[in-house]
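Predict the 3D structure for this chain.
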Amino acid sequence: MEDRHKTVFHYTSLDGLLGITESASIWCTNILYLNDASEFNYAKALLSNEIVSFCEANPDFKKESSWGYYFFESLENNINKLLPSEHYSSYVCSFSEEGDLLSQWRGYRKNSTGYSLGFKLSTLQDWVSRAGFAIKPCIYDQKEQTDAIADLLRKASDRFVCEVGREGENWDSKSKHIAADILIDFIQLAPFLKHPKFEEEREWRIVANLKTDYVKSQIKFRPGSTMIVPYIEIPLPIEAGSLVIDQVFIGPTIDSELSRASVELLLKSRNVTCSRVQYSTIPFRAV
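Done. Predicted structure below.
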């Protein structure tokens, strides 16, 4: 219950601020197209390591000639080859418990000033749930991460033994069905597994896991730096016809007062309810 009283912040660019306040929505990007491509690779590496450990500890899956060994080998190969799918995709939007963080501002300094938009977590949770999605904190502790993946593997092994057995009866169809279900479970978990070095961000994420029909009706595209990026829009909290933002931080900039005045004017002109606009306490030269 204590978490619901938090304010969480979404860092964005000048273009992002203009777009969010105009549309009263926020973009969730396909996880395979995030700016830091290593994020999903980190989760895949954890899974690969845990598969090795699991097979070593379980005789039915250790022997290279066993059906269980082939099953986990096939599962790992499918995840390593994972590409955008028309059947199931995961879309992500990031927030932080820290609204004035140097490491985040550095990501926006090259082109323009950055902004962080603060939302009451309780309100955000309610609105996101209406769209059928969830917002949850990321996991940075490696033991928690490996425990979560180990749970998936135990679930997979239990189903394999029950439905396929040691003799590999109907191996192809049954194992593919089990692997597909576990793959979906992993795609749902992976966005919340973050490398411990990013723990200062104290990140929360909206994760929208979409099946084919919903993706086809909602998916949009925007230009990335090197390719087309798929995304979806999630509506933000509206009260009495106004977008509600709890507070706004303006990133380090040369003229903080003038920047704040322009942001306040923008919010008023677009009928955005915001209790506080403030500028970063981090010196401009530090960014």
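The first strand starts at residue 7 and ends at 12.
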